[in-house]
Design a protein that fits this description.
Blueprint (H helix, E strand, L loop, with lengths): L1 E7 L2 E6 L6 E4 L7 E2 L5 E10 L4 E8 L2 E4 L5 E3 L16 H5 L3 E6 L4 E5 L2 E5 L6 E5 L10 E2 L5 E4 L4 E7 L2 E7 L11 E7 L4 E6 L5 E4 L6 E2 L11 E6 L4 E5 L6 E5 L2 E6 L4 E2 L2 E2 L6 E5 L4 E5 L1
Antiparallel strand pairs: 1-2, 2-3, 3-4, 5-6, 6-7, 7-8, 9-10, 10-11, 11-12, 13-14, 14-15, 15-16, 17-18, 18-19, 19-20, 21-22, 22-23, 23-24, 25-26, 27-28
């Protein structure tokens, strides 16, 4: 039931879609994971993130957003305008479309939140203001962003580019992947600065694609196995991207310059533990130059 995890100094945190215990933390002062219950998010906690000054969490039920300084004591920020906030605790793609918060990022300057087809922004992580609404066709789940603060929102129906300046965004459309009879959904997106490329993943025809000009899209190439029916979470350390697949030849995939450059087979043994299925989430720690993978 885990959705996301985050490490803030010596504190580890996870968010879940278990309606009874939607947030946990673990620190050097505890000998086990400690539940924060469901008073902040009664349905699910989708993501937890820090900018070094404040920790922000997003989800559904009771609140859409919350903030904390220490990761233990939390303050709910209430519901976002125009969104459902029921206690449905599924974290599926369809539940995100129906009113949950899909993603939140710190672009280096400002907080950006994506909920269904609405964009909200915040300068302090506490108070949120509506900024933009996308076409209702093709909801967007992931926010990709560049080091300069610009953001890219992509779906198979519409894609928009947010140029950042003066604590807000100017929005313009860019080319989307067009649909056909084998259409699917874009589930993840990440900008990789090393090759100046936007990577997208999902299901059906959108398993993994990329564009360097925000107009023409190509399929990522692999000489080992394939991408199965779906590719899932995607993240970048601005040198390469990681993604995961339900294909047994490519459970964890490393991509750069539009091609697979590394992979981990199914059920690897790490530190004496056999890891089944595929990774759930990744987190790149800039300070220590390390990936943390929730498997």
């Amino acid at each position: 039931n885990l959705n996301d995890f985050y490490i803030v100094e010596k504190l580890k945190m996870v968010g879940t879609h278990d309606g009874n215990n939607t947030m946990y933390y673990y620190s050097d002062d505890t000998s086990s994971w400690v539940s924060l219950g469901n008073s902040i998010f009664s349905a699910f906690c989708r993501k937890i993130l820090s900018n070094g000054s404040i920790i922000v969490a997003v989800g559904r039920g009771t609140n859409h957003t919350a903030w904390s300084i220490d990761g233990i004591n939390w303050n709910g920020s209430g519901s976002l305008s125009g969104l459902s906030n029921s206690n449905a605790n599924s974290s599926s793609y369809n539940d995100y479309n129906s009113g949950g918060v899909n993603d939140v990022i710190w672009n280096g300057y400002i907080w950006v939140l994506l909920a269904s087809n609405r964009v909200f922004i915040s300068t302090d992580g506490k108070q949120w203001s509506y900024n933009y609404v996308l076409s209702a066709n093709g909801s967007i789940i992931d926010i990709a962003y560049k080091p300069n603060g610009d953001v890219l929102l992509s779906s198979h129906h519409n894609s928009v580019y947010g140029t950042y300046a003066n604590s807000t965004f100017t929005w313009s459309s860019f080319g989307s992947i067009t649909t056909n009879s084998n259409h699917g959904n874009i589930i993840g997106a990440a900008w990789n600065d090393y090759d100046s490329t936007l990577y997208l993943n999902g299901n059906a025809q959108y398993r993994m694609n990329y564009t360097t000009d925000l107009s023409t899209y190509y399929g990522v190439t692999s000489n080992v196995g394939h991408f199965g029916n779906n590719t899932f979470i995607i993240a970048s350390n601005n040198e390469y991207v990681l993604t995961s697949s339900d294909d047994s030849s490519n459970y964890l995939i490393k991509v750069q310059n539009g091609a697979v450059i590394g992979r981990v087979d199914a059920n690897p043994n790490v530190g004496g533990y056999t890891l089944g299925s595929r990774p759930i989430d990744y987190y790149w720690d800039d300070e220590n130059s390390l990936w943390y993978i929730l498997w």
